[in-house]
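Researcher: Next entry in the queue.
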Amino acid sequence: MSTATNNFHNTALRGPAYLNDVRMVTPKGSRRGEPYLAARVKFLQGAKNPAQGDPDEGYLVNCNIQGPAAELLNQYAGSESQIWAVVRVSNLSSSIYTRSKDSKYGKAGDPAIANYGRLYAVEQLYVDGNKVYSRTDEAAEADSQAQKDAPRRAAVMGDQHDDSSFDDDDIGF
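Model: Structure for this entry, 173 residues:
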Protein backbone atom coordinates (compact mmCIF):
# COMPACT_ATOMS: atom_id res chain seq x y z
CA MET A 1 0.00 0.00 0.00
CA SER A 2 1.28 3.42 -0.90
CA THR A 3 1.84 6.03 1.78
CA ALA A 4 1.46 9.01 -0.58
CA THR A 5 -0.88 11.75 0.59
CA ASN A 6 -2.82 14.44 -1.23
CA ASN A 7 -2.29 17.94 0.10
CA PHE A 8 -5.14 19.53 -1.84
CA HIS A 9 -8.89 19.28 -2.34
CA ASN A 10 -10.66 19.04 -5.67
CA THR A 11 -14.31 19.98 -5.95
CA ALA A 12 -16.19 18.39 -8.82
CA LEU A 13 -19.69 18.66 -10.27
CA ARG A 14 -21.55 15.69 -11.75
CA GLY A 15 -25.04 15.79 -13.12
CA PRO A 16 -27.45 16.60 -15.92
CA ALA A 17 -26.60 19.70 -17.90
CA TYR A 18 -27.17 21.55 -21.14
CA LEU A 19 -24.06 22.14 -23.24
CA ASN A 20 -24.29 25.51 -24.97
CA ASP A 21 -21.93 27.22 -27.39
CA VAL A 22 -19.64 24.23 -28.00
CA ARG A 23 -16.74 25.76 -29.93
CA MET A 24 -13.06 25.55 -30.85
CA VAL A 25 -11.02 28.30 -29.20
CA THR A 26 -7.74 29.52 -30.67
CA PRO A 27 -5.67 31.43 -28.09
CA LYS A 28 -4.57 34.90 -29.20
CA GLY A 29 -2.02 37.40 -27.98
CA SER A 30 0.93 36.61 -25.78
CA ARG A 31 -0.59 33.35 -24.46
CA ARG A 32 -0.55 31.53 -27.79
CA GLY A 33 -1.11 27.83 -27.53
CA GLU A 34 -2.89 24.91 -29.07
CA PRO A 35 -6.58 25.34 -30.00
CA TYR A 36 -8.95 23.65 -27.57
CA LEU A 37 -12.63 22.77 -27.31
CA ALA A 38 -14.80 24.81 -24.91
CA ALA A 39 -18.48 25.05 -23.93
CA ARG A 40 -20.84 26.76 -21.53
CA VAL A 41 -22.30 24.05 -19.30
CA LYS A 42 -25.52 24.74 -17.40
CA PHE A 43 -26.02 22.18 -14.63
CA LEU A 44 -29.71 21.78 -13.87
CA GLN A 45 -30.85 22.53 -10.34
CA GLY A 46 -34.20 22.30 -8.61
CA ALA A 47 -37.38 20.36 -9.23
CA LYS A 48 -38.52 19.69 -12.77
CA ASN A 49 -41.98 21.00 -13.60
CA PRO A 50 -43.43 18.82 -16.40
CA ALA A 51 -45.54 21.74 -17.68
CA GLN A 52 -42.49 24.01 -18.05
CA GLY A 53 -39.78 21.55 -19.06
CA ASP A 54 -36.41 21.77 -17.33
CA PRO A 55 -35.94 24.35 -14.56
CA ASP A 56 -34.49 27.78 -15.29
CA GLU A 57 -32.25 27.59 -12.24
CA GLY A 58 -28.85 26.16 -12.82
CA TYR A 59 -25.16 26.51 -12.23
CA LEU A 60 -23.36 27.91 -15.26
CA VAL A 61 -19.72 26.89 -15.80
CA ASN A 62 -17.44 27.91 -18.69
CA CYS A 63 -15.50 24.73 -19.46
CA ASN A 64 -12.45 23.61 -21.34
CA ILE A 65 -13.23 20.14 -22.67
CA GLN A 66 -10.40 17.62 -22.46
CA GLY A 67 -9.62 13.96 -23.03
CA PRO A 68 -12.17 11.51 -24.42
CA ALA A 69 -14.95 14.05 -23.80
CA ALA A 70 -13.31 16.40 -26.33
CA GLU A 71 -13.15 13.63 -28.93
CA LEU A 72 -16.84 12.88 -28.38
CA LEU A 73 -18.04 16.51 -28.44
CA ASN A 74 -15.75 17.84 -31.19
CA GLN A 75 -18.30 16.98 -33.90
CA TYR A 76 -20.83 19.35 -32.28
CA ALA A 77 -18.56 22.44 -32.31
CA GLY A 78 -20.48 25.30 -33.91
CA SER A 79 -23.66 23.23 -34.10
CA GLU A 80 -27.07 24.73 -33.35
CA SER A 81 -28.26 21.39 -31.92
CA GLN A 82 -29.71 21.16 -28.42
CA ILE A 83 -27.19 19.11 -26.43
CA TRP A 84 -28.14 17.57 -23.09
CA ALA A 85 -25.72 15.38 -21.18
CA VAL A 86 -24.71 13.91 -17.85
CA VAL A 87 -21.18 15.23 -17.36
CA ARG A 88 -18.39 15.57 -14.80
CA VAL A 89 -16.51 18.85 -14.33
CA SER A 90 -13.57 19.45 -12.00
CA ASN A 91 -10.92 22.09 -11.27
CA LEU A 92 -13.63 24.63 -10.49
CA SER A 93 -12.72 28.26 -9.99
CA SER A 94 -14.51 31.60 -10.05
CA SER A 95 -13.65 35.19 -10.87
CA ILE A 96 -15.49 38.43 -10.19
CA TYR A 97 -15.85 41.04 -12.92
CA THR A 98 -17.87 44.16 -13.74
CA ARG A 99 -20.40 43.92 -16.58
CA SER A 100 -19.42 46.05 -19.57
CA LYS A 101 -22.89 46.24 -21.15
CA ASP A 102 -26.55 45.68 -20.32
CA SER A 103 -27.95 42.18 -20.72
CA LYS A 104 -30.91 40.17 -19.48
CA TYR A 105 -28.73 39.09 -16.52
CA GLY A 106 -27.80 42.58 -15.31
CA LYS A 107 -26.93 46.17 -16.11
CA ALA A 108 -23.61 47.64 -17.18
CA GLY A 109 -21.44 48.39 -14.16
CA ASP A 110 -22.99 45.65 -11.99
CA PRO A 111 -20.62 43.14 -10.40
CA ALA A 112 -20.92 39.54 -11.65
CA ILE A 113 -19.19 36.21 -11.19
CA ALA A 114 -17.88 33.78 -13.81
CA ASN A 115 -17.31 30.09 -13.04
CA TYR A 116 -14.68 28.02 -14.82
CA GLY A 117 -13.89 24.32 -14.91
CA ARG A 118 -12.61 21.36 -16.90
CA LEU A 119 -15.14 18.98 -18.45
CA TYR A 120 -13.44 15.59 -18.45
CA ALA A 121 -16.18 12.96 -18.70
CA VAL A 122 -19.48 12.45 -20.49
CA GLU A 123 -21.68 9.68 -19.11
CA GLN A 124 -24.71 10.17 -21.39
CA LEU A 125 -25.23 12.41 -24.40
CA TYR A 126 -28.48 13.42 -26.09
CA VAL A 127 -28.53 15.59 -29.22
CA ASP A 128 -31.90 17.05 -30.27
CA GLY A 129 -33.61 14.55 -27.97
CA ASN A 130 -31.89 11.47 -29.45
CA LYS A 131 -29.52 9.39 -27.33
CA VAL A 132 -26.18 9.30 -29.15
CA TYR A 133 -23.82 8.07 -26.41
CA SER A 134 -23.91 6.24 -23.10
CA ARG A 135 -21.03 4.80 -21.12
CA THR A 136 -21.31 1.06 -20.98
CA ASP A 137 -21.87 -0.65 -17.67
CA GLU A 138 -18.53 -2.43 -18.12
CA ALA A 139 -16.63 0.86 -18.41
CA ALA A 140 -18.40 2.31 -15.38
CA GLU A 141 -17.75 -0.88 -13.40
CA ALA A 142 -14.05 -0.86 -14.40
CA ASP A 143 -13.74 2.77 -13.25
CA SER A 144 -15.48 1.96 -9.97
CA GLN A 145 -13.23 -1.06 -9.34
CA ALA A 146 -10.10 0.97 -10.14
CA GLN A 147 -11.15 3.60 -7.61
CA LYS A 148 -11.77 0.98 -4.92
CA ASP A 149 -8.43 -0.72 -5.57
CA ALA A 150 -6.43 2.50 -5.42
CA PRO A 151 -5.06 3.30 -1.95
CA ARG A 152 -6.59 6.42 -0.48
CA ARG A 153 -5.10 8.68 2.09
CA ALA A 154 -6.27 12.05 3.38
CA ALA A 155 -4.66 14.75 5.45
CA VAL A 156 -7.18 16.24 7.85
CA MET A 157 -6.05 19.25 9.88
CA GLY A 158 -2.47 18.04 9.86
CA ASP A 159 -3.29 14.51 11.06
CA GLN A 160 -2.96 11.49 8.78
CA HIS A 161 -6.02 9.23 8.53
CA ASP A 162 -6.54 6.15 6.40
CA ASP A 163 -9.94 6.42 4.71
CA SER A 164 -9.60 3.29 2.58
CA SER A 165 -12.95 2.07 3.98
CA PHE A 166 -14.73 5.12 2.50
CA ASP A 167 -17.07 4.11 -0.32
CA ASP A 168 -17.92 6.44 -3.22
CA ASP A 169 -21.46 5.01 -3.22
CA ASP A 170 -22.03 6.72 0.13
CA ILE A 171 -21.89 10.16 -1.50
CA GLY A 172 -23.72 9.48 -4.73
CA PHE A 173 -20.92 8.79 -7.21
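Model: The domain at 13-135 is CATH 2.40.50 (OB fold (Dihydrolipoamide Acetyltransferase, E2P)).
Researcher: Noted, moving on.
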